[in-house]
Design brief:
4 strands, alpha+beta, 5 helices, 4-stranded antiparallel sheet
Length: about 110
């Protein structure tokens, strides 16, 4: 199971922005998340660091949507922890930092 963060532009903000500008802002948020997440991701073999994947920005009712995921099969155990290992919320913290930088509101769904 992959760990995924979904981005969705606020419909009110989308109305104010041209379509290309909204897409660019979401893409900038994706890239900023990766920039913060990759160097902070724990490394053993490097697979977890290399498993970040960004989906293209797609239109949807009320705005645009995109996702960034870590497709390593064990990513959820690293990021959310287990009863034997403490959580390392690298991915979530990176999204929060990127949100502050790009002006997006971050909320976990």
């Amino acid at each position: 199971m992959a760990v995924t963060i979904k981005f969705q532009a606020n419909p009110a903000a989308t109305k104010q922005l041209a379509e290309t500008t909204a897409r660019q802002k979401i893409r900038r948020f994706q890239l900023a998340t990766e920039v913060h997440a990759v160097p902070r991701t724990p490394v053993d073999t490097g697979f977890l660091r290399a498993a970040y994947v960004s989906a293209p920005v797609v239109p949807m009712p009320g705005g645009f949507r995109s996702t960034i995921s870590n497709n390593a099969s064990y990513a959820r155990f690293v990021f959310y922890g287990t009863k034997y290992m403490q959580a390392r919320p690298v991915f979530q913290n990176a999204a929060r930092m990127a949100a502050r930088e790009t002006g997006f509101a971050f909320r976990r769904t």
